[in-house]
Design goal:
Number of domains: 3
Distance between the termini: 81 Å
Shape: elongated
Number of helices: 6
Strand content: 35-45%
């Protein structure tokens, strides 16, 4: 009996343990740089994102959000509403509202019953699985650029809001290396035509009238092929490289970054801390990642100091992380120490810096 009692207790323990496990969140903050808020509150890496949450980013800030198998990057000075997060089994339907700013999108390859929409004050973009960028400026002008796959775009007319899916089906595809621009005037003109036609359908039910109106105005609301422009990918090489490389960071890297952020909050250093992983460099100050760069070449170590260059900056840090100095110098990652000088190499130029101060 005693043996059976012990067996029962073990089963009860493992059952309780399994029930206690927290399921992986469907949408989370996978990474952020600088000043990022969720509903006007500070965020942490790993925070859950819910429907109707609003994400805002400050100057030189960004926020990566993983939604199911899709990922987006909210760029600086942006205001984004997570309008819809719906998942039923393997089916995902996502809708984002970009009031102002810029987002880079890498949605998963969608099935026919799924949707991924980005809405701005003047346009709606719908995709099946692609890489694209949406920008909305304070003048309510929308710019959409496609880097891979296909995107359909319509002008956002208030009275046709519930007909979005129907209108997107009518839209031609905007493909790789193509872009569209939708202005507030474009939407106002289309809205006036909708109002005018609806006023002439007074003798019929609203749904019947709406079907007739849509048939007559879809050429004004749907972004046509003649409104599509082409661009050279070379002109947007930075964006191209960034959108291709957007992905969730390894868990061990996230743990290292989170640990350094906590340490910097608890025991802040005047010039912040530097974290060098296998592929990236993170500059952390005031408990936040303020800058992220690539490890172009291995750092140089001298006594208890580490020197590293990464495209935009050159850093000198103590072996345990605290930054001693940093310089904003364009470089190719190559550095070397000669005597008491640090030589930094760039395009056709070499900078000589004092090892102790970083001064030229």
């Amino acid at each position: 009996m005693r043996r059976y009692g012990m067996l029962f207790l073990c089963i009860l323990f493992f059952t309780w343990s399994g029930c206690g496990k927290v399921a992986e969140e469907y949408a989370i903050v996978s990474f952020f740089i600088g000043d990022v808020k969720k509903n006007n509150a500070d965020i942490e890496i790993g925070d859950a994102i819910q429907e109707k949450d609003r994400i805002t980013t400050g100057v030189q800030s960004s926020c990566d959000i993983r939604i199911g198998e899709s990922i987006i990057r909210v760029k600086e000075n942006s205001n984004v509403l997570i309008s819809q997060l719906m998942r039923q089994g393997a089916v995902e339907n996502t809708s984002l509202g970009l009031d102002v700013g810029k987002i880079l999108c890498k949605p998963k390859k969608l099935m026919k019953s799924e949707s991924f929409l980005v809405k701005t004050p003047t346009a709606v973009a719908g995709v099946r699985g692609t890489k694209f960028i949406v920008e909305a400026d304070p003048n309510k002008t929308t710019r959409i650029k496609v880097f891979d796959g296909k995107v359909k775009v319509i002008k956002r007319v208030a009275k046709l809001e519930d007909k979005t899916e129907m209108l997107l089906e009518e839209a031609p595809a905007i493909e790789e290396k193509e872009k569209v621009v939708v202005s507030e005037k474009d939407v106002i003109d289309a809205g006036k035509k909708v109002d005018e036609l609806l006023s002439k359908q007074s003798g019929e039910g609203l749904e019947v009238a709406m079907v007739k109106v849509i048939d007559q105005v879809k050429g004004d609301v749907v972004v046509s092929r003649k409104e599509v422009q082409t661009f050279k990918v070379e002109d947007f090489k930075n964006e191209t490289a960034e959108i291709i490389t957007i992905e969730e960071k390894p868990k061990e890297v996230i743990q290292q970054v989170a640990q350094m952020m906590r340490l910097e909050r608890e025991k802040p250093k005047p010039d912040g801390r530097l974290l060098i992983t296998r592929y990236e460099i993170y500059f952390i100050k005031n408990g936040k990642v303020l800058w992220e760069g690539k490890v172009l070449q291995q750092p140089v170590r001298m006594n208890d100091k580490i020197f590293i260059a990464s495209g935009d900056y050159v850093y000198c840090a103590s072996a345990d992380g605290p930054v001693l100095w940093r310089k904003n110098i364009q470089n190719n990652g190559r550095i070397e120490i000669k005597g008491d000088r640090l030589f930094v190499y760039g395009k056709g130029a070499v900078k000589s810096l004092d090892l102790e101060t970083g001064q030229e």
